[in-house]
Amino acid sequence: MMMEPGESDTQSRKKQNHTYKQSFLRGAVYLSLAALIVKVLSAVYKVPYQNITGDTGFYVYQQVYPFYGIALVMATYGFPVIISKLVADEFEQNGRGAVRSILAVSFVTVGIVNFVLGGLLIALAPYLAGWMGDPGLVMPLRGMAAPFFIMPFVSVLRGYYQGLHWMTPSAVSQVGEQFVRVAVILVLSAWAMSNYGPYEAGTAAAAGSFFGAGAAFLILLAAGKKYTKNSFSTHNGNGTHIKWKEQSIAILTGGFFVCLSAMSLIAMQLIDSFTLIRLLRFSGFTLEAAGILKGVYDRGWPVVQLGTVLTTSFSLSLVPMVAKAALRHDRKLQQQYTIRALKTGAVFGGAAAVGLASVMPSLNPMLFTDTSGQTALQVISFSVLPASVFLTGAAILHGAGKGRSLLGLTAAGLFLKAAGNAVFVPAFAINGAALATLISFSVMAVMLGAVLYRYELLVFSEKRAGRTVRWAAALLLTGITAFLWQSGTIAVLHAWTEAGSRTAMTAAALSASSAGAVVFLAAAVKLGVVTKEEWGALPKLGSVLEKFERKKGADRQ
Q: Residue 509 pLDDT more than 80?
């Protein structure tokens, strides 16, 4: 940045710092927006995939998807976050040349982890397929190993750019990866279904994940041309040496704990992959029938994923406030923002859960063409509430520097899920698996509340009991409204369309969801479930409340 005539060196530095701060904040916004787009795309594309491949094809894909999910979380959230912190610290202390040591350790450490996992997935595919109860899954499993061999480069480059406070390449690579991946998956799966079958479609979908990772790598490489010369041609800082042991341990442990909460949904699906088919077979179902049932049950996961993404987009916006209060050692402010974030997750998570369960009779055929598995999907929809609270609380613990506490919580929840499947699936089939998921997330959310209370981040008061009752009343009104509107819409449209047609179900689901949302927001305001200050702190919804109150005031005049 050149100095203007008459401008002092101090003024120039201030202007430079201001420009840098604006650029950094803009990049952080891009990264947050990219993360939201990635999460939405990761849930939404599964609907057309199920429509293309049917329930059997969806079952095949969902059996192997958790392995890609692990690679994605590590490459997007886990390793880049800890690498960026190491890069930023080293850059500040020793300059850009010293960052080479971090890059060397990162490439080796992350590369070993991913290459070992990818190699094991290829070598153990026959055994994994056997443990899942379906030998036909060998090729889809091996295909899903491919992204692991590109992800190390993607992870390290994202962490490097973020460490230099240049967020744009990471954000663009995330969005580009998902768009390419989704497009290739849908095209190749349609081709595989027209020429082969559902298992080949699963292998083709795995290829889509590989192409998506490759696209991300190319985007990051292209962005790196701007910095390559400056980054790698300079001397190695102030004589720094590579701290292999210290930095590799930091990357492994830090990356693991950052990944932990983000992997909870994926880990639940992985448990289903290894237990559900075998338990259904044990209950007397054939492999073909069990596969179809599993595919029907798996319809619930994109619904839960999308519900938690939209809900936590509100609650997680408050988490940086908790981290900021922690840095200031302001315990009272930490508690205030913790309660507000958890309350937001619970309020909107509850609304999403009740709304989804209420409109599932029309939402299921709207998205997945028929009404199969309605009870299981309604039960698993309620998981949106505890899952949203858990994910919000997990982010709070990370922000407060207590992220390691999540290990025991997550392990307990996953154990409950596996045990719940073993107990409930033989008795209730896929309804039992949905119930096990709901119980697991509920226990995880309650345990997390206890941990937050132990760290004095959460306090309880009798005053909130009254608001809880009013919140429950608002949810009841929401559920009744959505269900009645849905039933009325279907009855009215029955005169013009075929009974149970997808068009009628789409109209019923969308209109009932909208009616339920309006009633919930109105009830939440009227009953004082959320205070005016809390509404104002939420992105977008604060302005909605202002318009609502202005209209209410105008109507009174």
A: yes
